[in-house]
Amino acid sequence: MKVNQEVQIRDPFVFVDREEGKYYLFGSTDKNIWGRGTGFDVWVGEDLEHWEGPYPVFRPNVEFFSEENFWAPEVHEYQGSYYMFATFLLKDSGKRGTAILKSDSLTGPFHPHSDGVVTPNDWFSLDGTLHIDEEGKPWMVFCHEWVQVGDGEICAVRLRDDLKEAVGEPVPLFAASEAPWPTSFHHKTRNTQENYVTDGPYIYRAENGELLMLWASFVDNVYAQGISRSTTGKVTGPWVHEEKPLFASDGGHGMLFHDLAGQLHLTLHSPNKTPNERPIFISMEENAGVIRRGENG
User: Fold this and answer.
1) DSSP conformational letter for 250
2) Which of the four CATH numbers 3.20.20.220, 4.10.320.10, 2.115.10.20, 3.40.50.1100 does domain 2-293 have?
3) 100, 104, 99: which is closest to 80 by C-alpha?
4) Could you report the per-residue pLDDT of 85-137, keeping only the tens digit for each?
């Protein structure tokens, strides 16, 4: 396991540029992550230990639809351009949602691409991620937040081919309480019911063709990373859940990637307390669709 002490970041996302031989590390980079947002930065490295930056990749103008909660940017290459899926708190409604930004370069600048958020306007939503299905059609997988529904959900919605907007209504995939490992909590001010968190979904197609999903929740108030799999190989599921979390040591919102040498890694942030969060890189092994920590992880 590698921990970078120089980079303070939440929700780390690594884009591997195999042509350049470089890694681009995106994430929630505001020092006051819970308050006013300044934008997003990227760190660039030729290995997973030494990073240059941060370099600004997105800064909002005065007309931008959000001023707070700039969270969880993911960058995906799609049809020759780079698209950033990121969460924002909306000025007009006070709700959160995922919007899509676009750039011709991994170092930006990224500009708004979708017309506002592509999640439902009346939902508290976050952490949208891109998935291209077996027919080449784009979907977004995202969280319907516990702050609105109590038992946090993970949903999927079809996107228009140009990623400008959603097509149709979101499809609920599962609620956090359906998995055996997350535990509930009571919130003093939001509600008195049992609440379960869903955070940071990431879709990964295993070597054997199975469709896996990483997502985060809490175990006894400790941030944890779990994994689920689609029984059909399709994003609409049904989804079944592993009995125990993949990582339960106060870390989560992770993603999987193969490094330049082909080694599989899990990256996530840990601990889950600002300003101490750091990106962690863990070597993983994949066997018949099962992801486990490797010998050097």
Assistant:
1) S
2) 2.115.10.20
3) 104
4) 999 999 999 999 999 999 999 999 999 999 999 999 999 999 999 999 999 99
